[in-house]
Write a structure and sequence with these properties.
The complex is a heterodimer of chains A (about 425) and B (about 475).
Chain A lengths: L13 E8 L3 E2 L9 H16 L8 E5 L10 H8 L7 E5 L5 H14 L5 E9 L9 H12 L5 H10 L22 H11 L4 H20 L10 E3 L2 E3 L11 H5 L20 E11 H6 L6 E10 L10 H12 L8 E4 L4 H11 L2 H8 L19 H4 L6 H16 L3 E8 L3 E8 L3
Helix pairs in contact in A: 1-2, 3-14, 4-5, 6-11, 10-11
Chain B lengths: L3 H4 L1 H10 L25 E5 L5 H10 L3 E5 L7 H9 L5 E3 L10 E7 L10 H7 L6 E11 L8 H21 L5 E7 L7 H9 L10 E4 L18 E5 L4 H12 L3 E6 L4 H11 L2 E4 L7 H13 L2 E6 L14 H24 L3 E10 L2 H5 L5 H21 L5 E7 L5 H4 L3 H9 L9 H12 L10 E4 L8
Classes of the chains: A alpha+beta (about 425), B alpha/beta (about 475).
């Protein structure tokens, strides 16, 4: 057998060396003028500065996005060029709805495990504030002959005008977070899950309250200082997350009106808000990290992605993905030191935890006799989650990886499991482990 | 010819406005697309009766996406529904006996009558269904489940069991105007595991034109694998008379469930037959089934191209109607040979060459008039009643190999055959069914396709009518 060159094909462990994110900011707020690439630049620049990684050692950038800048959708490459990294730092951009950030990290881990690369910057960013408004196809098709065709006569213009009626059909459509196949808005899916899993409004509001209090405590204690960078904007620097409400309470949350159904339970308070932000993670092979003198925060032990029928329970995916990732890691839920779950909606998180604790679910959906397990509140989303911190779609996964990797390194605990639900009925999970 | 009362909105409105004494049929809800994971998505299914099938019902209904409403005095009745309810997030709702809360409507009623012992117990049918029957939504479903009367050791118990069928047939007539159907299912002891797929079929829109029928689930044939979706994946199906009508609809539906369909028709129908085969990605086989060498040619083709066959649908058929006194011998010959003789010869050949694979399915077309008798159809009725005997005998012989053999008896179906009927007779024939309309070829195709699935292993040797609950030939 020919000798392998440049590490190609050799098995090596992928480790998390560092992670940084921008503050997560309410959409149409302080980051209004920064698009997804600007936010990515900010996060990656901070990662480079704080980790002091020699630029020539970087192999590539794997970036994630959900709402793409239409003129330059390969954000990864734009970041490398913007930050004047060596031209050899190649880049690709991936998308997997709300699991995109985790997808970028596991793609990086897979490439490193395969020996394709040793140092990869992975992460994701989204600017909901800069979601492009698309002209309807009808208008595009009518205008195309004028824009790209031969010189037009006045009668051509008239013909195009004639096609533009009625006016409502050619106005740009407001983007909304709806399933393409079912037409259901995600909040309606959460509402349906709450109903079907019998998750009460009270339980959702209590969960949201806890999320805010924990995130606020993490911020005020300085726990996030290592992983959040300030970002310069034309209106001044932004230093911290602005969605967290440390002073909220169950009583205040109870007063909010349901958004998606008049007799519903999902409110602006117990759902994740539209958010702008970016998060970046430095992933390396364990040997390279050692060679460069880094002490890795954690290693990536396993991951799993699943799909469920979007017309059923759109956001139940983590209840299937987490057991799968645990299986692959050769462990059980009770073995995990921390559980970190993306909080799209309190109703969704509580539906997933209920399913994980259910013997019936385990028997019917996983083909096993025992429930996956109960989750201890003290180890669950210990620093809050997407409801309180916010949820820039493609950044959340990388934020969770960073926070949990830091938590393992700080506490000396063994393992953490991540779970993320995503549009299209997708579920994602990953297991991080301590590096001895 | 299209059904004016069904398809012309103005006619429908006019009759309703004038209050004419003409029953306006309800448009039947029909399935679109292949078998779904959850055919009963968000359907509210009322479950009553104190039987032995609660576990099977809980599992089947919940997994199929239904919201179970269970009748019972206390919450202990919900016990079997809790685990599957958690698995598929379909928590059960308890309803008190005799109580039909104001404004609540239901999509289906399932009555588990397997616990009934004596004639007095039949009262439970009344107690469960009476308060709810008017609350049944359009295209609703009633399914009454019991044990086979023939298995009862005591005559009184047999009588009780048999009573379920008569009740169900009458309910079917009463709710047909609403586009709803009622059928009974008799489950042999030990065959409970085979109830699920039958229930999914009967409660879904796929059984739109099946009403008044008893289904007998037995453990006769072997086999247990029953995928919910794409049930015919990897199967080879032969459909005779596939160029048009019921054959065409069946070929299309089977292909949609994953089967490779060999579409057989006469060489004269090359055009339409090949067109069907092309459209569904199957193959065409042009053979006149009455030819002497037809069985050998069909067997040869199936052996060489596919190494065997899983599903055989004997659909090709003709009518040559004349009263017996005026019937020419050719008319007799033709009808009996195509409808029965060829079916027997082709089946024999496939079996003798061992081409029908384990778990195979044979489905033959009978006819309601074959069962009931019809003036001017002595030849046709002889052939179609012959089919009933054929499947009964063959089902016994092939059961060990997991092969089921069944007949389908269509009632009035809107096809080329029935569009040639005189207007008055056609119009009368349509309204004679419980749902007051004719069926579509796809209705027959749906039942054939269901019988061809692995999940229908509990049904064999039976003649299933697809007649909308027709008055004739009960």
């Amino acid at each position: 057998m020919a000798k392998k060159k440049n590490g190609w094909g050799k098995r090596q462990r992928a480790v998390i060396v560092h992670g940084v994110r921008t503050p997560f900011v309410k959409a149409f707020g302080q980051f209004l003028k920064l698009d997804s690439i600007d936010l990515a630049d900010a996060a990656v620049k901070a990662l480079l500065d704080r980790s002091e990684i020699p630029h020539e050692d970087i192999d590539s950038i794997v970036w994630g996005g959900v709402i793409f800048p239409s003129l330059a959708p390969n954000i990864a490459r734009e970041v490398a060029l913007d930050l004047r990294l060596p031209p050899s730092v190649e880049g690709m951009t991936c998308t997997r709805a709300c699991a995109t950030g985790l997808q970028a990290v596991t793609l990086a881990a897979a490439a490193i495990e395969r020996g394709e690369a040793d140092v990869i910057i992975a992460g994701g960013s989204d600017s909901t504030s800069n979601a492009p408004l698309n002209l309807p196809q009808k208008a595009v098709h009518a205008l195309a002959p004028l824009a790209f065709g031969k010189a037009a006569s006045p009668s051509d213009y008239l013909q195009v005008l004639a096609q533009m009626m009625p006016i409502a059909e050619i106005l740009p459509k407001m983007p909304k977070i709806a399933e393409r196949t079912t037409g259901q808005v995600m909040g309606e899916s959460a509402e349906e899950m709450a109903r079907r899993n019998e998750i009460t409004r009270e339980a959702q509001d209590h969960f949201a309250e806890r999320s805010h209090h924990r995130a606020a405590a993490a911020i005020s204690s300085g726990r996030f200082d290592d992983e959040v960078t300030s970002v310069e904007t034309s209106d001044g620097a932004v230093y911290t997350d602005n969605i967290v409400r440390g002073d909220t309470s169950f009583e205040k949350l109870s007063k909010l009106r349901p958004v998606f159904a008049s007799d519903g339970t999902v409110t602006a308070g117990n759902a994740s808000p539209l958010t702008d932000g970016a998060a970046a993670v430095l992933v390396m092979s364990e040997n390279k990290a050692k060679a460069l003198g880094y002490k890795p925060l954690a290693a990536i032990r396993s991951w799993a992605y699943v799909g469920v029928d979007p017309a059923d329970q759109l956001l139940i995916g983590p209840a299937l993905a987490m057991p799968k990732a645990l299986d692959r890691a050769g462990m059980q839920l009770k073995d995990a030191s921390f559980v970190d779950m993306h909080e799209a909606f309190a109703a969704q998180v509580l539906s997933v935890t209920k399913a994980l604790a259910s013997k019936g679910f385990a028997q019917g959906r996983l083909g096993r006799s025992k429930a996956v397990g109960e989750i201890d509140e003290d180890t669950f989303n210990i620093h809050g989650g997407s409801i309180s911190i916010g949820h820039p779609f493609a950044a959340t996964g990388a934020r969770m990886v960073t926070t949990m990797a830091n938590e393992l390194a700080r506490t000396g605990q063994e393992t953490a499991i991540l779970g993320i639900c995503a549009a299209g009925g997708l579920g994602a999970a990953a297991v991080l482990e301590a590096v001895a | 010819m299209s059904d004016l009362l069904l398809e012309n909105e103005q006619a429908r409105r006019l009759i309703k406005t004038l209050g004419l004494p003409i029953p306006v049929p309800e448009r039947l809800a029909r399935a679109t697309g292949p078998y779904e994971e959850r055919p009963l998505e968000d359907k509210r299914v009322l479950v009553g009766g104190r039987g032995e099938l609660q576990d099977a019902l809980a599992h089947t209904l919940t997994k199929a996406g239904a919201n179970p409403w269970v009748i019972g005095e206390t919450d202990s009745i919900l016990q079997p529904y809790l685990a599957p309810g958690e698995a598929w997030a379909r928590p059960p709702t308890r309803v008190s006996p005799g109580d039909a809360p104001e404004g609540e409507r239901i999509d289906a009623i399932v009555f588990d009558g397997t616990g009934l012992q004596s004639p007095g117990d039949l009262r439970e049918l009344y107690d469960v269904i009476h308060p709810w029957i008017r609350r049944l939504n359009r295209s609703g479903r009633v399914v009454v489940i019991g044990r086979p009367a023939s298995d009862a050791k005591k005559a009184g118990r047999a009588a009780t069991r048999a009573g379920l069928e008569g009740f169900t047939r009458s309910v079917a007539k009463e709710i047909g105007g609403n586009g709803s159907t009622a059928n009974s299912v008799f489950v042999q002891e030990g065959a409970e595991g085979r109830l699920g797929p039958v229930l999914r079929f009967l409660l879904s829109p796929r059984s739109a034109f099946v009403s008044c029928q008893p289904f007998h689930i037995t453990k006769l044939a072997s086999g247990d694998d029953a995928p919910d979706t794409q049930p015919l994946e990897g199967k080879v199906a032969l459909v005779t008379g596939a160029a048009r009508g019921i054959g065409e609809a069946t070929a299309e539906l089977m292909a949609a469930e994953g089967a490779h369909v060999v579409c057989l028709d006469r060489p004269a129908d090359d055009g339409p037959c090949s067109e069907v085969a092309r459209r569904i990605g199957g193959s065409a086989l042009l053979v006149d089934i009455t030819d002497e060498d037809a069985p050998a040619r069909i067997a040869g083709e199936l052996r060489e191209e596919f190494g065997g066959v899983d599903i055989v649908v004997h659909n090709a058929g003709v009518t040559r109607d004349k009263t017996l006194a005026r019937m020419a011998p050719e008319a007799w010959e033709m009808a009996v040979d195509i409808n029965l003789g060829a079916v027997v010869r082709i089946t024999d050949r496939l079996l003798s060459e061992n081409l029908l694979r384990t778990g195979g399915r044979i489905i033959c077309l009978s006819s309601v008039s074959g069962i009931a008798g019809n003036r001017g159809q002595t030849n046709y009725s002889a052939s179609k009643a012959g089919i009933v005997g054929f499947v009964e005998a063959l089902a016994q012989q092939l059961a060990k190999r997991g092969v089921t053999v069944n007949a389908i008896a269509p009632g009035f179906i809107e096809t080329r055959l029935t569009s040639a009927m005189p207007v008055a007779i056609r119009e009368a024939a349509r309204r004679l069914s419980a749902v007051a309309q004719g069926g579509k070829p796809e209705d027959v195709g749906q039942t054939i396709t269901f019988l061809a699935t692995p999940g229908a292993v509990g049904l064999t040797g039976q003649t299933v009518r697809v007649c909308g609950g027709a008055l004739v030939g009960a």
